[in-house]
Amino acid sequence: MTDYEIVIGLETHIQLNTTTKIFCSCKADSWFDPPNTNICPVCTGLPGVLPVLNQAVVEKGMLLAAAMHAEIQPVSYFDRKNYFYPDLPKGFQISQYDRSLARGGYLDLPMPSGYVRRVSIHKLHMEEDAGKTKNAGRERLIDFNRCGVPLVEMVTGPDLRSADEAAQYLIRLRQLLRWIGVSEADMEKGHLRCDANVSIRPRGADYLNPKTEIKNVNSIEAVRDAIEHEAARQIREVEAGNRIEAWTLEWDEDAGVLRKMRSKETEADYRYFREPDLLSLPITDEWKERVLAGLPELPLERRARFMQAYGLPEYDADILTGERNLSDYFEAAVQAYGGDPKRVSNWLMNDLLRMLNDTGRTADQLKVTPQYLAEILKLVDANTVNTSTGKALLAKVDQSGKAPRAIVEEEGLAQVSDDSAIRAVVQEVLNESPKEVESYRAGKVTLMGWFVGQVMKKMRGKADPSLARGILEELLGGG
Amino acid sequence: MSLTLEEVEHIANLARLRLSDEEKERYRQQLSAILEYAARLQELDTSQIPPTSSVLPPRSVLRGDEPRTDLTLEQILANAPQSEERQFRVPPVLE
C-alpha cells in the first residue's frame, strides 16, 4: 500500500471577549441570559439602522494579529457576505473579504515528540456572528442574542500533517488567546469553533488533492477523531480506485461518525461587496503602537526563556507557561526566593498546582503569594522547619492569609535543633522500647526508621530528623 | 457579455426569487445590458486614479465598548410574524 500523509488546514472562529457586540451596544456575552435578551434594532436587522464599529473589537483584533506575527494593515474594509438563513436577520453578514485587518502570520507548534511545526495563517479578519436556531417540532425557533457578537476568523494554510498536529494547533491557539486576554476561548461555550479541511496524498508529494471540509469539530478530541476517521475513509476510497469528492461533512461527536451535508454556496455565490454603511478602517502608527504596548511576552517566548534563564527542563517550562498568571507567579517567587529556580518549580508543580486544581482557582487567587512561597522555602532551607512542616504551611497560609513566619511562631512549629532537647526524647523512646532496642542491636538496623518516627511523633514533627537520627545512632550504636 | 437562462435562474435562486419564464427572459436581457455597460467602463485606464469605493476620506468612526439597552423584548417580538418562548418562530429551513 502507498504510504500516505494527511494534509490539514483549520478554519477557526474566535469569539472576542469585549463587553458589547461589534456593531451595536448590546451586551456580547449571553451565556447566562434567556433567548433574545441582548438584542436591538441593529443586531436584529430592522430597516434603517446603521452599524457603528466597536473600538475594543479592533484593538483585540490587533493584539491577536500581532501575537500571530501577522502584518496589521494601515487601511482595511468591511464587506457584505450575502446569504439567506433564518439566523441572519439582515440577509447578509458583515465581514471582511479582500482587504482585511491583517495579512500573513504563523503559529509555531512545539510537538511533544520534539519537532516544531510552523503553521502559516492565510486569512485573519473581523466579522459578526449569526444567531442560533433550534428545532421545535416542524418549525424553528430563533434566538438573536449571538447576532453581532464579535468574531475573528482565522484560516491556516494546508500545513498540518496529522490529527495530533491539528489538536496541538487548537491547544496552542487557546493558550495564546487566554494569555493575551482577547477571548475566554472556552470551546464548550463556542468561543473557539473549528472546521477542518482534510485531504491525503502520497508522502513526499508536493501537490494538493481535492479536500473535504468537516464542520463542527468543536473540541480537541473531536478534531483528532474526525480527522482520523476522514483520513482513513479517503485512503480506503483511493485504494479502492475511487476519487475523493469535495464534500462538506458534519462531525457527529456523540455517534463518532461523519455525515455528508447539503452542498453550500460557492464563494462567488456570496456576492461580496464593500459594506456601504461603514467607513474604511484606518489604523495609524500611533494607535497601533499604543495598543501593541499592551502585548505581553508570548507563551512560547516565555517557555524558551524559562528553560534558558532558569535552567528548567522542557517539561517544567511547558507546564509553568500553560497559563500566564501561573508563569507570572513562578517568576515572582523565583525572584523573592533568590535560590534554585528548579526548587520553586518543584513546589509549584507538586503542591500548588494540586491546590489550584482542587479548588478551581488561578495562581493569582492564591493567598499563598509568591513572596509567602519564597518565605516558606527559606524557612526550610534554614532548617527552621522541616520539609513536611513546610508543605503543611502552604495549606495553613492559604487558609488564613497570614505570613508563614507568623504561623510558625504562633503555632510553635519551629523545628527543634537543640541537641539536648532531642537527646532527652531519644532517651525516653529507648527506655520505653526495650524489645526494639534489643532487635536493633541484634542486627535489625531497618528499625532505625521506626525509632526516628517515634521521636518525631513525641516532638509533634518538629525535630530536625537528621539530628534525631544522629543521636539515635550514637546511643544505640554502643551495643 | 450575455447571460444564459441558467445563470439568471441561479441568481434568482440566491435571492430567493421565483420568476416566471417571461420574467426570466426579460431579466436575462436587462442584466446582460447592465453587464455590457460595466464591461465598457472596464476598458478605461484607471491605473492612475485612486480607488473610490467610498467617496469619503479614510477616517475612524468608532464606538466605546459601553453596554446600553434599547428596545424591549416585547417591542422587538412585536415585529415577528409568529413567536414562541421568547423566540422568533419560522417555517422549517429548505431541504
UniProtKB/TrEMBL annotation, chain A:
Residues 328-476 form the Asn/Gln amidotransferase domain. The keyword Oxidoreductase does not apply. SUPFAM superfamilies: GatB/YqeY motif (SSF89095), Glutamine synthetase/guanido kinase (SSF55931). It catalyses: L-aspartyl-tRNA(Asn) + L-glutamine + ATP + H2O = L-asparaginyl-tRNA(Asn) + L-glutamate + ADP + phosphate + 2 H(+); L-glutamyl-tRNA(Gln) + L-glutamine + ATP + H2O = L-glutaminyl-tRNA(Gln) + L-glutamate + ADP + phosphate + H(+). Pfam families: GatB_N (PF02934), GatB_Yqey (PF02637). Its EC number is 6.3.5.-. PROSITE patterns: GATB (PS01234). GO terms for molecular function: ATP binding; glutaminyl-tRNA synthase (glutamine-hydrolyzing) activity; transferase activity. GO terms for biological process: glutaminyl-tRNAGln biosynthesis via transamidation; translation. Keywords: ATP-binding, Ligase, Nucleotide-binding, Protein biosynthesis, Transferase. Allows the formation of correctly charged Asn-tRNA(Asn) or Gln-tRNA(Gln) through the transamidation of misacylated Asp-tRNA(Asn) or Glu-tRNA(Gln) in organisms which lack either or both of asparaginyl-tRNA or glutaminyl-tRNA synthetases. The reaction takes place in the presence of glutamine and ATP through an activated phospho-Asp-tRNA(Asn) or phospho-Glu-tRNA(Gln). PANTHER family: GLUTAMYL-TRNA GLN AMIDOTRANSFERASE SUBUNIT B MITOCHONDRIAL AND PROKARYOTIC PET112-RELATED, GLUTAMYL-TRNA(GLN) AMIDOTRANSFERASE SUBUNIT B, MITOCHONDRIAL. Heterotrimer of A, B and C subunits. Belongs to the GatB/GatE family. GatB subfamily. This is Aspartyl/glutamyl-tRNA(Asn/Gln) amidotransferase subunit B. It comes from Levilinea saccharolytica. The gene is gatB.
From TrEMBL, chain B:
It catalyses: L-aspartyl-tRNA(Asn) + L-glutamine + ATP + H2O = L-asparaginyl-tRNA(Asn) + L-glutamate + ADP + phosphate + 2 H(+); L-glutamyl-tRNA(Gln) + L-glutamine + ATP + H2O = L-glutaminyl-tRNA(Gln) + L-glutamate + ADP + phosphate + H(+). One of its GO terms (biological process) is regulation of translational fidelity. Keywords: ATP-binding, Ligase, Nucleotide-binding, Protein biosynthesis, Transferase. It holds the Pfam family GatC. It is an enzyme of class 6 (ligase). Its EC number is 6.3.5.-. GO terms for molecular function: asparaginyl-tRNA synthase (glutamine-hydrolyzing) activity; ATP binding; glutaminyl-tRNA synthase (glutamine-hydrolyzing) activity; transferase activity. Belongs to the GatC family. Allows the formation of correctly charged Asn-tRNA(Asn) or Gln-tRNA(Gln) through the transamidation of misacylated Asp-tRNA(Asn) or Glu-tRNA(Gln) in organisms which lack either or both of asparaginyl-tRNA or glutaminyl-tRNA synthetases. The reaction takes place in the presence of glutamine and ATP through an activated phospho-Asp-tRNA(Asn) or phospho-Glu-tRNA(Gln). NCBIfam families: gatC (TIGR00135). Heterotrimer of A, B and C subunits. This is Aspartyl/glutamyl-tRNA(Asn/Gln) amidotransferase subunit C.
